[in-house]
Design a protein that fits this description.
The protein is mainly alpha-helical. The chain is built from four helices and no strands. 52% of the residues lie in helices and 0% in strands.
Length: 88
């Protein structure tokens, strides 16, 4: 069964399409390749199978990813020089 990567504010997704887009993409990355497990792997990619992240790890990472889609998160990305593409 695939693990759900939900952040602390899933209620915001209904009214914030960009947050929803970020959250869905993060879920897909983890469904397709277990991205978070590989990012947190203490063996740094030298193992055949990374250790599963804790529930808290999953929650924190999903919260940050959703936040990047929020207006404040988008401002953070713009301040770093990233611009949203019109193609979605």
């Amino acid at each position: 069964m695939k693990r759900k990567h939900h952040g602390l504010a899933p209620y915001r997704l209904a009214d914030n399409p960009e947050e929803k887009r970020f959250a869905k993409k993060w879920q897909k990355h983890n469904d397709d390749g277990n991205t978070l497990a590989w990012l947190l792997d203490p063996e740094r990619g030298n193992s055949w199978r990374p250790t599963e992240p804790s529930d808290r790890d999953v929650e924190v990472a999903a919260t940050v990813m959703q936040w990047l889609g929020s207006p404040v998160g988008q401002g953070f990305l713009r301040d770093l020089g990233y611009e949203r593409s019109e193609k979605q």
